[in-house]
Every structure is written in C-alpha cells, then in structure tokens.
C-alpha cells in the first residue's frame, strides 16, 4: 500500500513541528516547508527519518508569494508524485498591538497574503491532484470564534484574513466533497512559546484555562491526525476550536483599553 504524503507549511517549528512528529509517527511521508528556519527543518527531517523510517524532505519558500507556492508544489510532486494531505500551518502574525489606521500597506498585505492568499495559491495547484486520486485532506488554521466573524481589537488584518479563510475552507469543503476531498479548520487556543512543541504529558497546571492545564502542540496535532484519517470523511467544512474551554478573545478583550479619541 502506497504511503500517503503530507505537505506541512511552516513545519519546521512550533505547531507545524509537532504536527510533523504526529504524522511521521502515523506513517506519512512529509514535505516540510519553511521560510527562514532552514537549520531547524534539516534537523527535524533527519530526526524523523531516523526514528520512523519515512521519507522526509525540506523545501524553502514563502507561502505568501505565488511563485514560491508554485515551486513548492512542483518540488513536492517531483519527489513524491502526489500530495494527499496539506496542512496550511504557516501564517504570519504581528505581535505589536495596533489599530487598523496604524497598519502600513506592506504590513496589511503581508498578513493577508500569508494567511489567506497562500491557501488559494496552494489549493489551486494541489486540489486538481487530489481530484485525480479521488481523495484528499485539507487543514487550515484559525482562531477561537473565527466562524462567528468576531472583531479582534488591534488584530484587524489577521482577523480579516482568518475570517476569510474560514469561509474559504467551508467553500472548498462543499465544492470538493464529491471528489473525496475534505477541508476543515482547526483553531488553537492560547498555546504560546515552547508549549507549541510540547506534549500533553508535559503540560503544567493553569488556573486561567478551564480544564486546568496549559495547551500544547500535541493537543492540536492529535485533532489534525484525526481529521485526516481515512475514516474521517464525514467531517468536512468544520471549524473546530481546541481551546481547553478558554474564551481566547474574551481574555484578549479583558486586557485591552481603547482610548476614545485615538
């Protein structure tokens, strides 16, 4: 039986890295995309190949750039002949808190391209391949309550891109259902810093999360693993929060003060 191939964008670090571990463990061949984290990608690929015996390749490219996306897909196809699963993990984020009017055009375009247009670029190239084999799994990444089109103060560009992506994900799910292709969005909770690459058994207690512990990358990778399973074909067009019960945006609002005259 042919091993399935998964492309993980932004797969060298953070949630992408933890997802790579999960999928390699499950027997997937991997194409790990990175933009700047070359050394991390190479070390990860060697570790996974040695541990699980699967073929792992690393491909540099900025998914917010249409030409890079074309080259990315071409490289994966040249090595694996097809792409069965794509995890749209890469997505730029500007940590500085600023209002809409304070964004430069470059910053706005950077966030929209990386979080929304990138999925269009890659999907347009990959979906026809999935149609030919009548099977495919597409995973996008969102944020808590994205399916309700919430406002997110000081995060206008990111929120706009991800909200658009939620609609795009559901549209793909409807359009491609007859072709054996599913599309779902996973929405991580407040998983920060090193916790993105840690496992559930390592999680420490937290009074700010209703379930009583911090979230980890494994919490996300396990959900992704379930959604891309052969028998998960009845789940498509879903937007799934993985937050430990936390109201992530509510937490953000509780620490926000918006001056009336600015």
Helix proportion range: 40-55%
Give the CA-based shape. globular
The CATH class turns out to be Alpha Beta
The CATH homology group name: NAD(P)-binding Rossmann-like Domain
Spell the H/E element sequence: EHEHEHEHEHEHEH
- Give the strand order of the largest sheet, numbering strands 1, 2, ... along the chain: 3-2-1-4-5-6-7
What's the main sheet like? Answer: 7 strands, parallel
Number of helices: 7
Query: Strand content of the residues, in percent?
Result: 5-15%
The mean pLDDT is 94
- The assigned CATH architecture is 3-Layer(aba) Sandwich
| Class computed from helices, strands and strand pairing | alpha/beta
Give the termini distance in whole angstroms: 61 Å
Unreliable segments (pLDDT under 50, ≥5 consecutive)? none
Keywords:
globular; single chain; 7 helices; alpha/beta; 262 residues; seven-stranded parallel sheet; Rossmann fold; 14% strand
Characterization of the model:
It is a single chain. With 262 residues, the protein is α/β, with parallel strands linked by helices. The protein has a single domain, classed as NAD(P)-binding Rossmann-like Domain (Rossmann fold, 3-Layer(aba) Sandwich), CATH 3.40.50. The protein has 7 helices and 7 strands, in the order βαβαβαβαβαβαβα. A 7-stranded parallel sheet has the order 3-2-1-4-5-6-7, with helices on both faces. Helix 1 crosses helix 6, helix 3 runs parallel beside helix 4 and helix 4 packs parallel to helix 5. The longest helix has 29 residues. It is globular. The N and C termini lie far apart (61 Å). 43% of the residues are buried.
